[in-house]
Amino acid sequence: MYTVSVRTQAPYEVTVGRNLIDELPSLLTKYRGRALVLVSDDIVAPLHMERVKSVLEKAAFTVHTFVFQAGEDHKTIETLDALLNFLYEKEMTRADLLVSLGGGLTGDLTGLAAALYCRGTDFIQLPTSLLAMVDASVGGKTAVNLQGAKNQIGVFHQPSAVLCDTAFLDTLPQNRFAEGMAEVIKYGFIDDKTLLDRLLPITDLESVIADCVKIKARIVAEDEREYGIRKLLNFGHTFGHAVECVSNHRVSHGDAVAIGMCRAYDVARRAGICQEDFGEKLHALLDYYALPTETSLPYGELLQAMRHDKKRSRQSISLVLPTKLGECICHSLPIEELEKFFAPSEKKEN
User: Fold this and answer.
1) In terms of CB atoms within 10 Å, which end of the chain has fewer, N or C?
2) Quick one: pLDDT band at residue 315, thresholds 50, 70, 90?
3) C-alpha torsion angle, residues 243, 246, 249, 250 (rounded to 10)
4) Is the confidence at residue 342, as pLDDT, over 70?
């Protein structure tokens, strides 16, 4: 078992291990005897909700359950509104608790509801996907989508604790596991090239998850609100979010990030700022986990989606570009240069 401290303004701990659910009440001692709402989607709930609910009820919690329809199409203001109304109907108070049981989408939704209800209530993350364990559950970003655009409405609201029980991953489909590996690979390329050598194959998943969390915890502690170094965590995400949006979320987040990392490398290579071995390593890892490296989606539509990216300021957009294994830089690009910067190689040669 691994424990990682996240030293934000409201500090908390991330626990990584196997078969940890029975330990959940020990994390919630200060809430004992209070009410909580366990939030999950209609894919995860049938797999895990009853067991988690039983553990909490045995520890004297009053447990209400809220289940919403899975998928990015339901990461909306309407779903958020339904959850907030549910909290009100159950007479939840600021002293009570929300618990997210699911992937990154569930965590984002639950965290935003917790931030808004009664001007801020505590919430716990129980991530059930690899992607959520290594990335989405840590750092305090909460959000829902707006008109299909990724995470346009949200706030920073740190969880009170995160419990990564790797036993949840036993029910995770292989393609969903691979999506999480896109984020794992990202961490190696932005911060720790030695991590990359432990992924072909992974022999100790818990230590890999813990090391990814350590990287994010250190970066978030230094830059909680993403004014500087935290932007590096967006490697692959600017183009990736555009792929998600234009595909109407038929391309998953992990697959889109994989494509986005490849496009960012292509841009950096053509600009002469990235070493060739970066691309070789990137493609080898993505191929090993059967992750995509390119998209056939219309370039013009991808460009328009990037113009609506939440990382855009009025006149520029923040991009993360690789320079060598384990190192990336933030680059502020004027909006009017976006088309030339991200144009496919074949277009630039015509």
Assistant:
1) C
2) confident
3) -90
4) yes
Tokens 């292989």 — which residue? 174
Instruction: Find the helix packing angle between 77-89 and 104-116, rounded to 10°.
Output: 60
Q: pTM for this structure?
A: 0.95
Residues 185 and 149: their CA atoms lie apart, in Å, by 24
CB 145 within 8 A of CB 192: no
Tokens 């299909």 map to which residue? 148
CATH topology of domain 2-171: Rossmann fold (3.40.50)
Q: 133 near 205, Cβ under 8 Å?
A: no
The Cα–Cα gap between 3 and 111 comes to: 21
Q: What is the DSSP letter of 128?
A: -
How far apart CA 347 and CA 298 sit, in angstroms, is: 13
Domain boundaries, the chain: 2-171, 174-201+223-349
Cα separation, 201 vs 182, whole angstroms: 14
**What is the CA angle 9-72-211, rounded to 5?**
45
Q: Which one-letter amino acid corresponds to residue 102?
A: G
Beta strands, E only, 42-190: 62-68, 97-102, 122-127, 141-146, 149-156, 161-165
Give, for 45, the enclosing helix (H) or strand (E).
helix 45-58
315 and 228 Cβ atoms separated by less than 8 Å: no
Which CATH fold would you assign to the domain 174-201+223-349? Dehydroquinate synthase-like, alpha domain (1.20.1090)
Report residue 47 as tokens.
């797999």
The residues, any chain, with a CB within 8 Å of residue 110's CB and separated by 6 or more, are 39, 83, 98, 99, 100, 123, 125, 142
Are 207 and 215 in contact by the 8 Å Cβ rule? The answer is no
What is the mean predicted confidence (pLDDT) over 75-80? Answer: 98
33: left (phi > 0), else alpha (psi -120 to 50), else beta? left
Convert the pLDDT of each residue in 215-251 to its tens digit.
999 999 999 999 999 999 999 999 999 999 999 999 9
Residue 347 has a CB neighbour count (10 Å cut-off) of 11
Q: What is the mean pLDDT of the chain?
A: 95
Tell me which DSSP letter residue 108 carries. Answer: H
